[in-house]
Amino acid sequence: MKSISFFSILLLLPSLALAEGRIQSGMINASALGVSKRFNIYLPDGYHKSDQRYPVIYLVHGWGVNEDSWRSPTLQIQQAADELNLQAIIVMPDGDRGVFVNSVTAADYQACIDKAAPVRNKHEPRESFCVHHADYESYMLEDIIPYIDRTYRTNSTRLARAIVGESAGGLASFHLALRHKDLFSSVAAHSGAVSMLYQPQDGSMLTRIEPRPGFAEWEAMFGLNIEGWKQYDPYSLLNTLKPGELAIYFDSGTDDEFGFYQMALHFQQRLTELGLKHRFVSVPGGRHDDTFFGSRIPVSLTFFAEHFKQHGVYPASE
Length: 318
Description:
The protein is an alpha/beta fold. It has a single domain (about 15-310), classed as Alpha/Beta hydrolase fold, catalytic domain (Rossmann fold, 3-Layer(aba) Sandwich), CATH 3.40.50. About 30% of the residues lie in helices and about 15% in strands. It is built from 11 helices and 10 strands. The protein has an 8-stranded mixed sheet with strand order 1-2-4-3-5-6-9-10, sandwiched between helices. A two-stranded antiparallel sheet has the order 7-8.
């Protein structure tokens, strides 16, 4: 008897066809930064054929890359979302290197433009990187979220809004969710800097901020007063969290070369001490790279979909 290939069977079963969302790009007039900023957005399969409103996941990139990093072959957000038949909008904003904090140091737009040999985000044109004001937290709250809710068919309730990031983007995701629990109901991070003051090399906590080699940009953002750091440090912000206020997921690879795994363990310990429900996954051998992040993004997207379903804000797929 003639054999039938697996792929031939799939052709006979249209109900098994993969979802096919779209990624589009747009521009936001970011008044908090004094410039316009580009973003990418994933619109799920069925978005253009229905009148449904969709939950929104904000996806925050890490240090030294931009919103297009999510479309790289190792991350490929569209493929991950399609394979899950994700019925949610994913917003990928350009965060530059601001980690979505309002910097204590004023931006110098002209100095940024005039740099002949930029040391930050070398692949990115100065015109799309430099800002007049370094108020990145305000940019997220006052520019990005309102624009997305005005422009796309979103469910704009907090129960339908989530945020996730990798590396420094994980830090941004957690501080934004913890500082603005009225806007976000779920948060995730992959190898995120979730305990900024923790020193993995000796297990100590910073008690004061002093200038350190390689930390000039961080000190410019947060200042040299440790209280300025604590305002954005997810570990410190856990004290403001009540049980059940946020759905929390985070993971890290055991071979993370920058100490983020030790930060994650420290963060998990504090969550446990405070009796705060969370999901943490320790990934054997995982390193701090796109291969690891790309393998974990489907997990956080699934976590959010489960949360949305639990709260009745996830539209049924057709």
